[in-house]
Every structure is written in C-alpha cells, then in structure tokens.
Amino acid sequence: MINVETTPKDALEQFFGFTKFKGEQESIIQSVLDGKNTFVIMPTGGGKSLCYQLPALMSEGTAIVVSPLIALMKNQVDAIRGFSSEEGIAHFLNSSLTRNESMRVREDIKAGRTKILYVAPESLTKKENVEFLSEIKISFFAIDEAHCISEWGHDFRPEYRRLRTIFDEIKRVPVIALTATATEKVQEDILKNLDIPGAVTYKASFNRPNLYYEVRPKRDVAREITRFVKQHSGRSGIIYCLSRKKVEEVAETLSVNGIKALAYHAGMDASQRARHQDMFLMEDVDVIVATIAFGMGIDKPDVRFVIHHDIPKSLESYYQETGRGGRDGGEGKCVTFYSYKDIEKLEKFLQGKPVAEQEIGKQLLQDTVSYAETSMCRRKYLLHYFGEEMKGNDCGNCDNCLDPQATFEGKEDLVQLLEAIVESKERHRAKFICDLITGTETSEMKTYKGDAMKSYGKGSEKTTQHWLAVLRQALVQGFLHKDIESYGNLSLTEQGKKYLKKPTSIKFAVERDYSDVDTVNDEGPSARTTAADERLMKMLRDLRQQVAKKQKLPPYVIFQDPSLEEMTMRYPMTIDELTQVSGVGPGKANKYGKPFVELIAAYVDEHDIEREDEVQVRSVVKKSGNKVHIIQNIDKRLSLESIAKAKGLTMPDLMTELESIVQSGTKLDINYYIDEQLEADSQDEIMDYFRESETDDLETAHQEMDGSYSEDELRLVRLRFMSEVAN
To answer: CA of 724: how far to CAs of 352, 357, 690, 711, in Å?
Structure first.
C-alpha cells in the first residue's frame, strides 16, 4: 500500500515505476486528492486511467470506478494487480462473477484491502450493491467513458443517466468524470447530468500529430485492405467493420492471403473474444478485424494502422477508434474507406427511433460526411469539431495536405452564402441553404417560401457539392456558427458579419468527389475505377472493339470498362493473372483473354514498365454455400422464388448472386423460369436489344424500349444473354 502522506510523484515511481507524469496528469491527480469534483477530457493514449488509479491508491477507502465494458474492467484490474503483491488491491463487480467470487470481493473491500472497485452501471442499480456500498468508506466515484451520459455522445447509454441519483443514494463524495472524445455540447451534458457544474476541468489537446489520416473511395475494398496489410507485414493493426458478417468475411480473406488475422465481435462467446484479444495483445496475431465492440481501454501502444472498412456513425467514434493507433508516439496510419451509400445505410438504422434521437443521429452523420468529403486539412477539420483551433492550414500528415486539391477564389461564393443565411433569418441548416442557393424545389423550401427570396437560384450554375464545400470551409474558418441544440442551424459569427460588410479575397479548396463510388460488390466490376495508364486503356478498348466485331457481340460482353481499367493498373501478362482482375472469371479469361494478355505483355516490354510486386488477393468462397445450392436447384428447375426463400434471400439479392455466378464463367440455364414470365417473342426482342446495344445498363434498356418491360424482366433476359453469349 502507498502511504497517504506520499506525494503523487513519489507514489507514481513507488507503484508504477514511472519518474514523470504525462501532460496535466499530476494536476488532475492533485485535484482528486484535494476532494474536488474533476472533469477530464483527454485523447486516447493520453493516460486517463492513471488519473483515477493513482489517487485511489493514495486515498483512504475504496474508489468506485464506473466502466461500461466487462472486458475493459478485467483488463484494468489485471494491470493494477500486476504492479502489486496484494491480489485484492483491485476488483470488479459485474454479472460475470459467481456468487462465491462476489463474496470474496466484498470481504476484501470490508478488510480494507481493495483500493479500486470497477463496477458496471447496471450493477450499481442493484439494491444489494447500493446497500453494501453505503456501508463502506468510499474515497471518490470515477466515471470512465463519461460521454456515454450524453445523447449527443457517440455511445449513449441510458443507464449512465441514472448515475447521479445512485451516487446520492450511496453517499455524496467527490466525482471525477473522464472521456477521450467530447464536443462542447457533450461536455455540457456530462457536467449538468452529474450535477458537478463547478468541476475543475482539464482539457488536453486533441491533436495527435503522429497519426496520418486518409480517406479513400470505397472501391474494391477487400483487395485494397489486403494490399495495405501486406505492405505493412508484421505490424499490428485494427480493421473496423460495421457488421459482424463483414468482420468474418474480411478476417477470412486476410487469413487465406497469409495474414495472421482474427475476428472480434459481440456475436462471439466471451471466452473466444477474450482469447482473440489476448492473442492480439501478445502478438500471436498481427491484425484484429472487429466491430466497435473491440478496443475500449485496450492498452496496446504499437498499433501501427487503423483501417475503417465502413465509415463510423460519428466523428467521436472515428476519433476514438483511430486514436488506438500509435499510442507510443510512433507511426499510426488511419485509412478509411468511404461511400455515401454507407451513410444511407446508417440513416436507415435510425428509422423507428424517437424523433429527437433521429435528428441527433442525422446531424452526427452529416458531420462525418463533411469530414470524409472535405479537401481541407483533415486534422484541422477534426480539431475544429472538438472545439480546438489548429494554427496554419497544413498539418503535413494527411492525404489532403500531402496531395492537395486545386483551390479557387471564393470571395463571391462566400458573400452569396452569407447573404443567403442572413436572408433566411439564420434559422436553417446546411441542406436548406444549399437548396436555396441552387434553386432546388423541396417541401421545406415551399413551407418557408424560399422560392420568393432573392437568394433563390442565385448560384444554380454551380452544384450542391460546390456549395457544401464553401459552407464547410466557411464554418471551419470561423465565418459561421452551427447551433447543435437546433440540430445544425447556421448563423453568422462576428467574423462573418465583418466579412459581409468588407469582403476580401479568400481561397477555398475544391472538394473531393466520392459520388461515383459503388459499394454493391467489393470484388465486382461494378466498383468503378479510373484508368491508370490512358494510352494502354485506349489500346485495350480498340482491341475489345475488334474482338467484339469478330464475335458479333457488344463490347461490354467481352470485358466491361472497370475490368479494362484494372488491367491498366495490374498489367496481367498471363491468363492466370488475368483471372485476378475484377469481373474476369476463368471462363471469360480463357474464352477472350489471349489477345489481351499478349497486347499487355508486348506493351510492358516496349515501354520497359516495371510491374510492382503484385499482391494476389485470393477471394473467399462464401460460407453460405449459396453458389452450389443455387446451381444445383436451377439444375432441378426449381422456381427462383423457392431458391431465394430457401436461402433467406430477396429476389434482387438472388439475381445479384446469379449474375456473379455467370460473370465467373459458369453457364446457367434459367430458360424454364423465363418462359413462365415472358412470351418467346418478348424474349427475342430483349435478346436482340442486348445483342445490338453498346451498354447493358437496365435503366437505359427500359427507356430505349419505351417502358414495354419492367427492369426485373429485362434483368432476367440480360442474365440469359450473358450466360449464353459471354460464356
């Protein structure tokens, strides 16, 4: 035990073996020892745990630490016990304990052996625990992950709202609240809800200069992630996915490509999760693929990369998760794959929730969109979001600073934007303002008579994307204020008002455009890319045209554009290498590939091109066994509805599976089914259309055929066409 007369610095060395504190740790610890309510906002890796652990060890009685995750509690208790010869110095009290284990905890507390007791908020509500804690000497209450109190926090938990009431029921002692991520609104909520408005507040900088931030368009993600991890072979990394299914898929893809990776999500049993976590900490595996369930309180200092397969639902989540990289001050690469379609999925998750919660969720999502799509310094944007201003406009360690977009003179646009906000009485959000300037008719525009305002349509020659770019940059540069209470209403700051009176030249960056990203199929040709070698691309297109004429087929049947574009990046010189290109199965490669690989080989030789060491990404056969099941049942001539139902698929999902099978080179005979849906003449008409058309786009086909057939009917016949002709 530490002598209560010892100074914090001596106690730090005596118990933990460190000779100096990080940042403001010493002041925070002294504040707690002085019996003051204390509020700590400190980024991940800043040393929050020590701020309550050390004063707990130095104080009389037991400190009660409220923590949201059982895994986190165990992790912390094991760490503290590792520094002490007294096993009972730290305990946790939660639902994972047996009755005997709970009794042992209580005995150690009563005997004065326990200095720190971790409890889940749910455990605090139990009457027996409240009664027990009321009888012991408590040094102080600590609330870890305090952002869980706020509805505006990224991990709101209703049970955290009751903490103050429960604390008062036990006894009134000092409180220390700690969080790694809190906007000003969340900070206000925490102080108000815990009834500690006068708490001494310590706010460390949110800037993590060693972290590199990058946002990539969401194209061919499985291959991109595998390449990235292979380039950082042997280094520790975390990959976050939104769904358990995707976690399993990505982990398996990495494994079959020779990478030591494991999955981690709430659907696994506790022992398996703990085992995978320990294997990661002990470096038996390099990569953990996880849902957000992983990481809270994980103290691994040398995580060298954090990848987001899916963009998180808030910037707080993003900041906290990326913050697990480079905690030792070394390199930490944070790469996020972004598509607006993921935002639309997250918006769907909000449906059915209370209106206020939906509004908050949508606002948090839009802030995430703004960060992902911005072309300004990502670090500057993040720090601004958390109420901190970064000096200068260039951090030198994010994709936008290292590969800057072009800039444009923004004086006229900024004036127009500020005037529109003033004219609409400063009580509207970003979407309304952009719709107003572009002259977009919406129900909200009619309600507020925006079409009668001078600003209506004044900037219609420019896109909504452009005006959002101006608006975001005006916000970060201090011309605008966004009111959180009203879910994002915009108003002019004093700086904005001064600018409107006396405009001066100002430069804005052109925003990055992610609107063409397609996430339907990580592996498929629908994921659009751009040609890396335009000269080769033209040669491949010309060759495709020749082959198509010879075969009397539309060019898209031979190879689609995204496949050609990928060839200009990978330079496949053998049929085997060609099968690694998206949208080129073995059947298609063998049928049409020979002249293409010969052309590419000659081109590589002529231009002395050095092909980079190619990462051959092996794809994983879906565990569901859908492909085999579908082919077998089509052979049995079962209806597509029956096949879909048996596998729990929707009809559109089944069609996507069928198209994938055909695309990989397998023939499917679904004529028996199509014959029940369409007359022979109609089938012939549609087949002739696809034979002569230069595109296989369904919407175009629907228009070209005057709406005579539904898109579902067209899709069926297109499938037959591709199966019979392309394979």
So the answer is: 45, 51, 12, 20
Looking at every residue in the chain, the average pLDDT score rounds to 85
pLDDT of 568 reads 87
Q: How many CB atoms lie within 10 A of CB 372?
A: 24
Three-state SS for 428-443 is ECHHHHHHHHHCCCCH
Residue among 41, 60, 47, 70 at smallest CA distance from 3 = 60
pLDDT in tens, 293-304: 555 446 688 999
Structure confidence by residue, pLDDT tens digits, 675-725: 999 998 899 989 888 888 877 888 888 888 888 888 889 999 999 988 887
β-bridge partners, 41: 179, 203
* Region of 114 on the Ramachandran plot (φ > 0 left; ψ -120 to 50 alpha; else beta): beta
How many CB atoms lie under 10 A from the CB of residue 450? Answer: 25
CA gap 219, 208 in Å, rounded: 28
Cβ 303 vs Cβ 45: under 8 Å: no
Question: Which residue in the block uniquely carries the two structure tokens 């995750």?
Answer: 69
**Domains identified in the chain and CATH numbers:** 8-203 (3.40.50.300), 211-347+380-388 (3.40.50.300), 405-509 (1.10.10.10), 534-606 (1.10.150.80), 626-726 (1.10.10.1390)
CA atoms within a 13 Å half-sphere pointing along the CA-CB vector of 353: 14
Q: What whole-number distance in Å separates Cα of residue 561 and Cα of residue 550?
A: 19
480 three-state secondary structure? strand
**What SS3 state is found at 579?**
coil
Q: Which residue has the higher pLDDT, 594 or 584?
A: 594
Whether the full predicted model's pTM is greater than 0.90, yes or no, is no
- DSSP code for 8: H
**For residue 300, what are the contacts with CB-CB under 8 A and spacing of at least 6?**
236, 280, 281, 324, 327
Phi and psi, residue 304, nearest 5°: -95, -15
pLDDT at 2 over 70: no
Eight-class DSSP state of 725? I
Model pLDDT, residue 362: 83
Mean pLDDT of 638-645: 89
Chain segment 250-262, per-residue pLDDT in tens:
999 899 888 999 9
State how far the Cα of 537 lies from the Cα of 600, in Å rounded to an integer.
10
For the chain, how many helices (H) and strands (E)? Answer: 35, 17
Torsion angle of the four alpha carbons 224, 225, 229, 230, in this order, in degrees rounded to the nearest 10: -40
Buried b (16+ CB within 10 A) or exposed e, 498-510: ebbeeeeebebbe
pLDDT band at 727 (very low <50, low <70, confident <90, very high): low
